[in-house]
Design a protein that fits this description.
Layout lengths: L2 E4 L4 H13 L4 E9 L4 E2 L6 H11 L3 E6 L5 H17 L4 E3 L6 H11 L5 E3 L7 H10 L3 E8 L14 H6 L13 E7 L9 E9 L2 E8 L3
Parallel strand pairs: 1-2, 1-5, 2-4, 5-6
Antiparallel strand pairs: 2-3, 7-8, 7-10, 9-10
């Protein structure tokens, strides 16, 4: 079993790695991330490529990057992902894992696109109650910051905040504790899946309604 992990730079994919290392020791062999090639950042999360690379080093795993344009037509996205999947199969990967939690349409799409490719999908955090999962992540030392928020459901002052119990306690009732409906996205900076914590500093905040992105960069010595 050789697993490729879809790595968003956020907490759910990081926790998926943590669980996979417990259930399938040594099987996760690389991370796969889509990069918006126009700005050289993780798609949607807007995490800098340099921070993404630092995350990969902290996991001890090689990083495979799929570059996509912005905007990205669906046929272009699917073509480039198909190339990445074919390359992974050629390199001996047997499975690809995702940090999806409960969105049935997302899971179904992944399963349909992977059918017959030689890569079987895995969903190690699927169905875990998100309130309990969020608490478990924090309890076991995962540290992250909100890199993107949707202002339709969260106030602007949530941007850039740590993903911690204080945040969970202040989330509106209609917001999923793990942000699975797109309410927020995170950038992981520490946790049991990392050898070392990332030293990051908060940069500027950019608003493009309805989203706010908080820039996170590696702290310079």
């Amino acid at each position: 079993m050789k697993i490729l992990l879809s790595w968003s730079s956020g907490k759910d994919s990081a926790w998926a790695l943590h669980l996979l290392r417990q259930t399938h020791p040594g099987a996760v062999a690389a991370l796969l991330t889509t990069i918006n090639e126009a700005v050289d950042r993780v798609a949607m999360h807007a995490v800098r490529h340099e921070v993404l690379a630092a995350q990969a080093r902290a996991t001890g795993l090689p990083l495979r990057v799929v570059r996509i344009p912005h905007p990205c037509p669906n046929e272009v996205y699917e073509s480039r992902m198909a190339e990445a999947v074919a390359g992974a199969v050629a390199d001996g990967f047997t499975h690809v894992a995702f940090g999806d939690l409960f969105l049935d349409d997302v899971r179904r799409y992944r399963e349909e696109r992977l059918a017959g490719t030689g890569l079987a999908p895995l969903f190690p955090v699927w169905g875990l109650p998100t309130a309990r999962l969020a608490e478990e992540m924090i309890e076991h030392g995962l540290r992250a910051r909100l890199s993107c928020i949707d202002t339709r459901v969260l106030d602007a002052d949530f941007a850039g905040r740590p993903f911690d119990r204080a945040l969970l306690n202040e989330l509106p009732n209609n917001v999923d504790p793990c942000g699975e409906n797109g309410e927020f996205h995170t950038c992981v900076i520490a946790g049991p899946m990392f050898d070392d914590a990332l030293d990051v500093e908060i940069g500027e905040t950019v608003t493009r309604e309805p989203f706010i992105w908080t820039d996170l960069g590696l702290r310079r010595a």
